[in-house]
Amino acid sequence: MTACASRRVLRPLLALSAIALVGSACSSLTSAPTTSAAHGPVGAVVKLRFVAFEPQRVTVHVGQAVEWRWEDAPVAHNVTFASFHSPTQTTGTFFHTFTRPGTYPYRCTVHPDMTATVVVVA
User: Which of 5, 94, 118, 121 has the smallest count of CB within 10 Å of its CB?
Assistant: First the structure.
C-alpha cells in the first residue's frame, strides 16, 4: 500500500476513533451517580411529564434515594406512597431515601392512572 493510500484509510479511522472517545467520555459523565446533600446518593431519577412517571419502574439499593423531577408544568402532580408523600406541585423536585428492601408501588392522587414502582434491593 502506498503512503497516500494508507493516509486515506487512516484518516477516517482516526476520525471515528476520536468521535467514539468523545462519545464515551460524555456518556460516562451523564451516568455518574449524583448525590443530594440532604438525602445521600441518588440511585434513580424519575421525571413527571406527559401525565406519567418516566420510567415507571426503578431499582435502587438500600440507602439510595430516588429523585422525582416535575417537568409537566402547569399540570400539578404528587408522589404518594402508603407511608409518605410529596407535596402536590407543578415544578421542583422531591427526594426519598429507601432504607429497607422491598417493592414500593406509588401513584399521583391527582391522576389515578399515573402509577409506578420503586424496587429496593440489598
Answer: 5
Give the percent of the chain with pLDDT over 70: 68
Domain identity same for 60 and 74: yes
Give the phi and the psi of residue 35 in degrees, each rounded to 5: -135, 135
Residue 8 sits in which domain range? 1-32
For residue 7 the three cell numbers come to 493516509
Q: Rounded mean pLDDT of 49-59?
A: 98
Q: Are 14 and 67 contained in the same domain?
A: no
- pLDDT tens digits along 99-119: 999 999 999 999 999 999 999
* Whether 58 and 47 share a structural domain: yes
Q: Which residue would you say has higher pLDDT here, 72 or 12?
A: 72
Q: Is 35 exposed, middle or buried (0-12, 13-18, 19+ CB in 10 A)?
A: exposed
Same domain for 24 and 50, yes or no, is: no
63: region left, alpha or beta (phi > 0 left; psi from -120 to 50 alpha):
left
